[in-house]
Design a protein that fits this description.
This protein is mainly β and 120 residues long. The protein contains one helix and ten strands; from the N terminus they run E-E-E-E-E-E-E-E-E-H-E.
Length: 120
């Protein structure tokens, strides 16, 4: 059974930083690429960063490239997102998941997410 727990969100001023964490059980990072997703108020969930099974492979959305850094610890199935130079448009609930599972399973399990609010 898949279990996902995201943490690390909070209220931060523009230009500030946060580090999100996501602990996953039920599948292994050695088998799946992992991604961070964001759902802003009134918008659909979008992927903002992805890391391959091989950690050297990463990719980012246009709005997060250069400011966000995704990383992982395979030994304890923990995913991280370092977010720097935060902007108000980064506000939303952040989730992690495996993009392959998201794409192939309409009933994929999501964690509760962690709220990030960027505001002065």
């Amino acid at each position: 059974q898949v279990h996902i727990v995201e943490s690390g969100g909070g209220l931060v001023q523009p230009g500030g930083s946060l580090r999100l964490s996501c602990v996953v059980s039920g599948f292994s990072f050695e088998d799946y690429a992992m991604g961070w997703y964001r759902q802003a108020p009134g918008k659909e969930r979008e992927r903002v960063a992805i890391i391959g099974v091989t950690a050297s492979i990463t990719n980012y959305g246009d709005s997060t490239r250069g400011r966000f850094t995704i990383s992982k610890e395979k030994n304890n199935n923990t995913l991280y997102l370092q977010m720097d130079d935060l902007k108000p448009e980064d506000t939303g609930v952040y989730y992690c998941n495996a993009p392959t599972l998201v794409a192939t399973n309409p009933s994929v399990h999501w964690g509760q997410g962690t709220q990030v609010t960027v505001s002065s």
